[in-house]
Every structure is written in C-alpha cells, then in structure tokens.
C-alpha cells in the first residue's frame, strides 16, 4: 500500500505539487494502473462494500446513498 506523508504547514503548495508530480511520473504505466485499482478497492471497502458509482440506465452516474 502507499505511504502517508505529512507536510509542514509552512511548505509552499507548489513544492508539494512538484514533489507529487515527480513521484507520479516516475511510475510505469502498469504501476499507475494498479494504483487506480487499489484506490477503487479502498473506496468500495470504506463505503460498506458498495461502489461509489453504479449503472443507472445510460452510463455511470454518481449518486448519494438513500438514508
């Protein structure tokens, strides 16, 4: 799994963005793809086993769960 990195509040946002871009661009396309799949798995797990998007007629529509 990934790492959580905490930044000092005095670090400029541009520096953080550049650092994250460098990490992303250093990955292979395969690593990027599996990273997206991993995020999808985590989001489903955190949403009680239900996907955040589900088919609703034409295409995928983001919907809020009915409470």
Q: Which strand order does the major sheet show?
A: 1-2
Q: What portion of residues belong to β-strands?
A: 5-15%
Task: Give the % helix.
Answer: 40-55%
Computed Rg: 16 Å
How would you characterize the largest beta sheet?
2 strands, antiparallel
Principal-axes geometry comes out as: elongated
Quick check: average pLDDT? 84
Distance between the termini: 32 Å
Helix-and-strand structural type: mainly alpha
- Secondary structure tally: strands: 2
Order of helices and strands: HHEE
Query: How many alpha or pi helices?
Result: 2
Unreliable stretches (pLDDT < 50, length at least 5) are none
Can you walk through the features of this model?
Residues 48-67 are annotated as: Disordered. This protein is mostly helical and 67 residues long. The protein contains 2 helices and 2 strands, in the order H-H-E-E. Helix content is 48%, strand content 9%. The longest helix is centred in the middle third of the chain and has 18 residues, at 29-46. Strands 1-2 form a two-stranded antiparallel sheet.
């Amino acid at each position: 799994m990934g790492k959580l990195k905490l930044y000092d509040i005095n670090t400029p946002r541009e520096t953080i963005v550049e650092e994250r871009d460098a990490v992303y661009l250093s990955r292979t396309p395969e690593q990027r793809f599996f990273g997206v799949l991993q995020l999808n798995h985590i989001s489903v797990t955190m949403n009680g086993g239900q996907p955040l998007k589900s088919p609703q007629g034409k295409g995928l529509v983001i919907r809020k769960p009915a409470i």
